[in-house]
Here is the input.
Amino acid sequence: MINFKKKAIKSITLLIIATSIISCRKNKNEEILPDIAPIRKGLFVLSEGIFNNNNSTLSYYDYDAKIVTSDIFKQENNRGLGDNGNDAQIYGSKMYIVVNGSSTLEILNAKTIKSIKQIDFKTNAGLKKQPRFIVFNNAKAFISSYDGTVAVLDTATLTIEKYITVGRIPEQMAIANGKLYVANSGGLDYPNYDNTVSVIDLTTLTEIKKITVTLNPNGVAADQYGDVYIKSVGNYDDVKPALTIIDSKTDAIKTTFTNFNGGKMAIAGDLAFFTTEGSPKTKDTPAITGNLKVFNVKTETVEKEKFISDDTFVTSPYGVNVDNLTGEVFVTDAKNYASRGEVFCFDKEGKKKYALTTGISPNGVIFINK
Here is the structure.
Protein backbone atom coordinates (compact mmCIF):
# COMPACT_ATOMS: atom_id res chain seq x y z
CA MET A 1 0.00 0.00 0.00
CA ILE A 2 2.84 2.34 0.89
CA ASN A 3 4.68 1.52 -2.35
CA PHE A 4 1.49 2.15 -4.29
CA LYS A 5 1.10 5.57 -2.67
CA LYS A 6 4.71 6.45 -3.37
CA LYS A 7 4.31 5.45 -7.02
CA ALA A 8 1.10 7.44 -7.25
CA ILE A 9 2.70 10.52 -5.72
CA LYS A 10 5.69 10.14 -8.03
CA SER A 11 3.43 9.86 -11.07
CA ILE A 12 1.43 12.93 -10.07
CA THR A 13 4.66 14.88 -9.45
CA LEU A 14 6.01 13.93 -12.88
CA LEU A 15 2.70 14.92 -14.49
CA ILE A 16 2.79 18.32 -12.80
CA ILE A 17 6.40 18.88 -13.91
CA ALA A 18 5.59 17.83 -17.47
CA THR A 19 2.55 20.08 -17.56
CA SER A 20 4.63 22.98 -16.22
CA ILE A 21 7.28 22.41 -18.88
CA ILE A 22 4.67 22.32 -21.63
CA SER A 23 3.01 25.42 -20.18
CA CYS A 24 6.34 27.23 -19.96
CA ARG A 25 7.16 26.31 -23.53
CA LYS A 26 3.75 27.53 -24.66
CA ASN A 27 4.13 30.81 -22.80
CA LYS A 28 7.63 31.21 -24.14
CA ASN A 29 6.40 30.68 -27.68
CA GLU A 30 3.58 33.15 -27.17
CA GLU A 31 5.98 35.78 -25.86
CA ILE A 32 8.30 35.61 -28.85
CA LEU A 33 5.57 35.87 -31.49
CA PRO A 34 6.30 39.03 -33.49
CA ASP A 35 3.98 41.99 -33.30
CA ILE A 36 3.29 42.47 -36.99
CA ALA A 37 2.88 46.14 -37.83
CA PRO A 38 0.88 47.13 -40.91
CA ILE A 39 2.88 47.84 -44.05
CA ARG A 40 1.79 50.48 -46.51
CA LYS A 41 0.93 49.29 -49.99
CA GLY A 42 0.48 52.76 -51.44
CA LEU A 43 -1.65 55.86 -51.35
CA PHE A 44 -4.63 57.37 -53.12
CA VAL A 45 -5.11 61.03 -53.98
CA LEU A 46 -8.60 62.47 -54.38
CA SER A 47 -8.82 65.43 -56.76
CA GLU A 48 -11.93 67.61 -56.93
CA GLY A 49 -11.63 68.68 -60.54
CA ILE A 50 -13.41 71.82 -61.73
CA PHE A 51 -16.88 72.41 -60.31
CA ASN A 52 -19.67 71.41 -62.74
CA ASN A 53 -17.17 69.72 -65.07
CA ASN A 54 -17.61 66.15 -63.75
CA ASN A 55 -13.86 65.59 -63.76
CA SER A 56 -13.03 64.41 -60.25
CA THR A 57 -10.37 61.72 -60.21
CA LEU A 58 -8.85 59.17 -57.85
CA SER A 59 -5.12 58.63 -58.42
CA TYR A 60 -3.12 55.72 -56.99
CA TYR A 61 0.60 55.55 -56.21
CA ASP A 62 2.08 52.07 -55.69
CA TYR A 63 5.00 52.19 -53.26
CA ASP A 64 6.77 49.09 -54.62
CA ALA A 65 6.34 49.75 -58.34
CA LYS A 66 6.68 53.54 -57.88
CA ILE A 67 4.01 54.05 -60.52
CA VAL A 68 1.11 56.53 -60.48
CA THR A 69 -2.22 55.49 -62.01
CA SER A 70 -3.80 58.85 -62.77
CA ASP A 71 -7.50 57.83 -62.72
CA ILE A 72 -7.78 54.39 -61.19
CA PHE A 73 -11.51 54.76 -60.47
CA LYS A 74 -12.33 55.21 -64.15
CA GLN A 75 -9.92 52.46 -65.13
CA GLU A 76 -11.62 49.94 -62.84
CA ASN A 77 -15.26 51.04 -63.28
CA ASN A 78 -15.44 52.34 -66.88
CA ARG A 79 -17.05 55.59 -65.73
CA GLY A 80 -16.03 58.83 -64.12
CA LEU A 81 -16.14 59.51 -60.40
CA GLY A 82 -18.40 62.54 -60.81
CA ASP A 83 -18.37 66.20 -59.93
CA ASN A 84 -16.38 67.68 -57.04
CA GLY A 85 -15.06 64.73 -55.02
CA ASN A 86 -14.67 66.27 -51.56
CA ASP A 87 -13.63 63.54 -49.11
CA ALA A 88 -12.43 59.94 -49.14
CA GLN A 89 -11.68 57.51 -46.32
CA ILE A 90 -10.98 53.79 -45.91
CA TYR A 91 -12.91 51.92 -43.22
CA GLY A 92 -12.53 48.16 -42.95
CA SER A 93 -12.32 46.67 -46.43
CA LYS A 94 -14.11 49.52 -48.17
CA MET A 95 -13.30 52.99 -49.44
CA TYR A 96 -15.95 55.68 -49.19
CA ILE A 97 -15.80 58.71 -51.50
CA VAL A 98 -18.05 61.72 -50.91
CA VAL A 99 -18.82 63.42 -54.24
CA ASN A 100 -20.29 66.80 -53.37
CA GLY A 101 -21.35 68.18 -56.75
CA SER A 102 -22.89 64.91 -57.93
CA SER A 103 -24.47 64.43 -54.49
CA THR A 104 -23.39 60.80 -54.27
CA LEU A 105 -21.48 58.49 -51.96
CA GLU A 106 -19.29 55.98 -53.81
CA ILE A 107 -18.52 52.79 -51.88
CA LEU A 108 -15.65 50.73 -53.28
CA ASN A 109 -13.65 47.62 -52.53
CA ALA A 110 -10.51 49.26 -51.14
CA LYS A 111 -8.18 46.70 -52.72
CA THR A 112 -9.69 46.46 -56.21
CA ILE A 113 -11.40 49.90 -56.42
CA LYS A 114 -14.42 48.19 -57.94
CA SER A 115 -17.67 49.95 -57.11
CA ILE A 116 -19.85 48.11 -54.60
CA LYS A 117 -22.63 50.65 -54.35
CA GLN A 118 -23.43 54.25 -55.23
CA ILE A 119 -25.83 56.08 -52.91
CA ASP A 120 -27.71 59.17 -54.13
CA PHE A 121 -28.02 61.94 -51.57
CA LYS A 122 -31.23 63.76 -52.39
CA THR A 123 -34.05 65.31 -50.38
CA ASN A 124 -37.65 64.06 -50.54
CA ALA A 125 -38.24 66.77 -53.13
CA GLY A 126 -35.43 65.38 -55.26
CA LEU A 127 -32.98 68.20 -54.51
CA LYS A 128 -29.28 67.48 -54.00
CA LYS A 129 -28.18 67.29 -50.38
CA GLN A 130 -24.56 67.92 -51.40
CA PRO A 131 -22.64 65.65 -49.00
CA ARG A 132 -19.30 66.95 -47.75
CA PHE A 133 -17.35 64.83 -45.24
CA ILE A 134 -17.40 61.35 -43.72
CA VAL A 135 -16.21 59.87 -40.39
CA PHE A 136 -16.69 56.44 -38.80
CA ASN A 137 -17.56 54.98 -35.42
CA ASN A 138 -18.66 51.51 -34.29
CA ALA A 139 -19.59 50.16 -37.77
CA LYS A 140 -21.44 53.34 -38.71
CA ALA A 141 -20.51 56.12 -41.11
CA PHE A 142 -21.55 59.73 -40.55
CA ILE A 143 -21.86 61.99 -43.59
CA SER A 144 -22.41 65.75 -43.34
CA SER A 145 -24.48 67.42 -46.07
CA TYR A 146 -25.21 71.01 -47.04
CA ASP A 147 -28.94 70.54 -46.37
CA GLY A 148 -28.17 70.74 -42.63
CA THR A 149 -28.09 67.03 -41.84
CA VAL A 150 -25.70 64.26 -40.86
CA ALA A 151 -26.60 60.89 -42.38
CA VAL A 152 -26.04 57.69 -40.37
CA LEU A 153 -24.98 54.81 -42.62
CA ASP A 154 -24.76 51.16 -41.51
CA THR A 155 -21.43 49.97 -42.97
CA ALA A 156 -22.57 46.33 -43.02
CA THR A 157 -25.84 46.75 -44.93
CA LEU A 158 -24.76 49.99 -46.66
CA THR A 159 -28.13 51.57 -45.93
CA ILE A 160 -28.87 54.95 -44.38
CA GLU A 161 -30.58 54.49 -41.02
CA LYS A 162 -31.47 58.08 -40.27
CA TYR A 163 -30.65 61.75 -40.79
CA ILE A 164 -29.72 63.93 -37.83
CA THR A 165 -30.58 67.63 -38.16
CA VAL A 166 -27.70 69.95 -37.24
CA GLY A 167 -26.85 73.55 -38.15
CA ARG A 168 -26.55 75.35 -41.48
CA ILE A 169 -24.11 74.14 -44.14
CA PRO A 170 -22.24 71.58 -41.99
CA GLU A 171 -18.67 70.80 -42.97
CA GLN A 172 -16.01 68.72 -41.20
CA MET A 173 -16.61 66.44 -38.21
CA ALA A 174 -14.54 64.74 -35.51
CA ILE A 175 -15.21 62.16 -32.80
CA ALA A 176 -14.14 62.45 -29.14
CA ASN A 177 -15.46 60.93 -25.89
CA GLY A 178 -18.38 59.18 -27.55
CA LYS A 179 -19.57 62.34 -29.27
CA LEU A 180 -19.55 63.66 -32.82
CA TYR A 181 -18.63 67.32 -33.29
CA VAL A 182 -19.97 68.96 -36.46
CA ALA A 183 -18.87 72.38 -37.76
CA ASN A 184 -21.93 74.35 -38.87
CA SER A 185 -20.39 76.90 -41.22
CA GLY A 186 -23.32 78.57 -42.92
CA GLY A 187 -20.67 79.16 -45.56
CA LEU A 188 -23.10 79.53 -48.46
CA ASP A 189 -25.24 82.13 -46.66
CA TYR A 190 -22.97 85.17 -46.96
CA PRO A 191 -22.94 87.34 -44.95
CA ASN A 192 -25.17 85.45 -42.48
CA TYR A 193 -22.75 82.72 -41.48
CA ASP A 194 -23.45 80.13 -38.78
CA ASN A 195 -21.24 80.11 -35.69
CA THR A 196 -22.04 76.82 -33.96
CA VAL A 197 -20.71 73.31 -33.48
CA SER A 198 -23.33 70.58 -33.11
CA VAL A 199 -22.59 67.87 -30.54
CA ILE A 200 -24.16 64.48 -31.31
CA ASP A 201 -24.36 61.67 -28.75
CA LEU A 202 -23.12 58.54 -30.54
CA THR A 203 -25.20 56.25 -28.35
CA THR A 204 -28.58 57.90 -28.91
CA LEU A 205 -27.64 59.39 -32.30
CA THR A 206 -29.23 62.71 -31.39
CA GLU A 207 -27.94 66.27 -31.20
CA ILE A 208 -27.54 67.13 -27.52
CA LYS A 209 -26.27 70.71 -27.76
CA LYS A 210 -24.71 73.44 -29.88
CA ILE A 211 -21.51 75.24 -28.91
CA THR A 212 -21.03 78.84 -30.07
CA VAL A 213 -17.66 79.58 -31.71
CA THR A 214 -16.23 82.17 -34.12
CA LEU A 215 -18.16 82.77 -37.36
CA ASN A 216 -17.98 80.27 -40.23
CA PRO A 217 -16.41 77.18 -38.61
CA ASN A 218 -15.39 74.65 -41.24
CA GLY A 219 -12.51 72.53 -39.90
CA VAL A 220 -12.68 70.05 -37.02
CA ALA A 221 -10.11 67.62 -35.61
CA ALA A 222 -9.61 65.81 -32.30
CA ASP A 223 -6.32 65.22 -30.49
CA GLN A 224 -5.21 62.35 -28.24
CA TYR A 225 -5.93 64.32 -25.07
CA GLY A 226 -9.67 64.67 -25.60
CA ASP A 227 -9.62 68.17 -27.04
CA VAL A 228 -11.49 69.15 -30.19
CA TYR A 229 -10.04 71.82 -32.47
CA ILE A 230 -12.40 74.07 -34.43
CA LYS A 231 -11.02 76.23 -37.21
CA SER A 232 -13.23 79.18 -38.20
CA VAL A 233 -12.81 81.30 -41.31
CA GLY A 234 -14.56 84.43 -40.00
CA ASN A 235 -16.41 86.78 -42.35
CA TYR A 236 -13.45 87.84 -44.52
CA ASP A 237 -13.75 91.34 -43.06
CA ASP A 238 -13.83 92.45 -39.43
CA VAL A 239 -14.21 88.94 -37.95
CA LYS A 240 -10.82 87.30 -38.40
CA PRO A 241 -10.05 83.55 -38.65
CA ALA A 242 -9.80 81.76 -35.30
CA LEU A 243 -8.87 78.46 -33.69
CA THR A 244 -11.08 77.31 -30.82
CA ILE A 245 -10.19 74.42 -28.49
CA ILE A 246 -13.07 72.54 -26.82
CA ASP A 247 -12.67 70.12 -23.90
CA SER A 248 -14.77 67.12 -24.98
CA LYS A 249 -15.20 65.95 -21.38
CA THR A 250 -17.16 69.07 -20.44
CA ASP A 251 -17.83 70.64 -23.87
CA ALA A 252 -16.50 73.88 -22.46
CA ILE A 253 -14.32 76.15 -24.58
CA LYS A 254 -10.77 76.09 -23.21
CA THR A 255 -9.37 78.88 -25.34
CA THR A 256 -9.73 80.71 -28.64
CA PHE A 257 -6.79 81.93 -30.70
CA THR A 258 -8.00 84.97 -32.63
CA ASN A 259 -6.61 86.05 -35.99
CA PHE A 260 -5.23 82.53 -36.44
CA ASN A 261 -3.73 82.10 -39.90
CA GLY A 262 -4.35 78.53 -41.00
CA GLY A 263 -6.30 76.65 -43.66
CA LYS A 264 -6.73 72.86 -43.87
CA MET A 265 -5.83 70.98 -40.69
CA ALA A 266 -4.45 67.56 -39.69
CA ILE A 267 -3.49 66.29 -36.23
CA ALA A 268 -0.99 63.47 -35.64
CA GLY A 269 0.39 62.72 -32.18
CA ASP A 270 1.25 65.98 -30.44
CA LEU A 271 1.33 68.06 -33.61
CA ALA A 272 -1.33 69.82 -35.63
CA PHE A 273 -0.47 70.98 -39.14
CA PHE A 274 -2.26 73.90 -40.83
CA THR A 275 -1.82 74.95 -44.45
CA THR A 276 -0.79 78.57 -44.93
CA GLU A 277 -1.15 80.45 -48.20
CA GLY A 278 1.71 81.96 -50.16
CA SER A 279 1.45 84.82 -52.61
CA PRO A 280 2.15 85.12 -56.35
CA LYS A 281 4.95 87.12 -57.82
CA THR A 282 4.17 90.77 -58.56
CA LYS A 283 6.09 93.56 -60.20
CA ASP A 284 7.50 94.66 -56.87
CA THR A 285 7.60 91.47 -54.79
CA PRO A 286 8.83 87.91 -55.32
CA ALA A 287 6.50 84.93 -55.07
CA ILE A 288 6.16 83.45 -51.58
CA THR A 289 5.69 79.72 -51.16
CA GLY A 290 2.77 78.24 -49.28
CA ASN A 291 3.73 76.34 -46.16
CA LEU A 292 2.50 74.60 -43.00
CA LYS A 293 2.12 76.04 -39.53
CA VAL A 294 2.91 73.53 -36.75
CA PHE A 295 0.90 73.74 -33.53
CA ASN A 296 1.75 71.63 -30.46
CA VAL A 297 -1.54 70.27 -29.05
CA LYS A 298 0.10 69.22 -25.77
CA THR A 299 1.47 72.66 -24.91
CA GLU A 300 -1.18 74.48 -27.00
CA THR A 301 1.41 76.74 -28.58
CA VAL A 302 2.66 77.39 -32.10
CA GLU A 303 5.83 75.35 -32.55
CA LYS A 304 6.79 76.46 -36.05
CA GLU A 305 5.44 79.07 -38.42
CA LYS A 306 7.06 77.25 -41.35
CA PHE A 307 7.35 73.46 -41.49
CA ILE A 308 8.83 73.14 -45.00
CA SER A 309 12.56 73.60 -44.47
CA ASP A 310 13.99 73.25 -47.98
CA ASP A 311 13.43 75.16 -51.22
CA THR A 312 10.26 73.26 -52.23
CA PHE A 313 7.77 75.73 -53.68
CA VAL A 314 4.09 75.04 -52.97
CA THR A 315 1.89 77.33 -55.05
CA SER A 316 -1.55 76.72 -53.51
CA PRO A 317 -1.63 74.39 -50.47
CA TYR A 318 -5.03 72.70 -50.63
CA GLY A 319 -4.80 69.79 -48.20
CA VAL A 320 -2.57 68.21 -45.58
CA ASN A 321 -2.37 64.60 -44.36
CA VAL A 322 0.05 62.83 -42.04
CA ASP A 323 0.98 59.14 -42.24
CA ASN A 324 0.88 57.97 -38.62
CA LEU A 325 3.04 54.93 -39.46
CA THR A 326 5.93 56.81 -41.04
CA GLY A 327 5.54 60.36 -39.80
CA GLU A 328 5.59 61.60 -43.40
CA VAL A 329 3.64 64.77 -44.09
CA PHE A 330 1.78 65.18 -47.41
CA VAL A 331 0.76 68.54 -48.83
CA THR A 332 -1.50 68.78 -51.88
CA ASP A 333 -0.92 71.69 -54.25
CA ALA A 334 -3.86 72.85 -56.38
CA LYS A 335 -1.60 75.14 -58.47
CA ASN A 336 -4.04 77.31 -60.46
CA TYR A 337 -7.14 75.15 -59.72
CA ALA A 338 -7.59 74.53 -63.46
CA SER A 339 -4.70 72.26 -64.43
CA ARG A 340 -3.18 69.13 -62.90
CA GLY A 341 -2.01 69.48 -59.32
CA GLU A 342 0.75 67.92 -57.29
CA VAL A 343 1.33 66.13 -53.98
CA PHE A 344 4.52 66.67 -52.01
CA CYS A 345 5.80 64.15 -49.46
CA PHE A 346 7.97 65.60 -46.68
CA ASP A 347 9.96 63.86 -43.96
CA LYS A 348 9.58 64.77 -40.29
CA GLU A 349 12.10 67.59 -40.70
CA GLY A 350 10.16 69.26 -43.51
CA LYS A 351 12.43 68.17 -46.37
CA LYS A 352 10.87 66.92 -49.59
CA LYS A 353 11.18 63.20 -50.29
CA TYR A 354 9.24 63.06 -53.56
CA ALA A 355 6.37 64.62 -55.51
CA LEU A 356 3.48 63.15 -57.53
CA THR A 357 1.43 64.66 -60.34
CA THR A 358 -2.32 64.33 -59.73
CA GLY A 359 -5.67 65.45 -61.10
CA ILE A 360 -7.09 68.96 -60.85
CA SER A 361 -7.29 70.43 -57.32
CA PRO A 362 -6.06 67.51 -55.20
CA ASN A 363 -7.50 67.80 -51.70
CA GLY A 364 -6.57 64.68 -49.76
CA VAL A 365 -4.31 61.64 -49.43
CA ILE A 366 -5.59 58.23 -48.28
CA PHE A 367 -3.19 55.46 -47.21
CA ILE A 368 -3.74 51.75 -47.83
CA ASN A 369 -1.97 48.75 -46.27
CA LYS A 370 -0.81 45.52 -47.87
Residues 87 and 98 are 5 Å apart (CA to CA). Residues 2-32 form the longest helix (31 residues). Residues 1-30 have pLDDT under 50 and may be disordered.
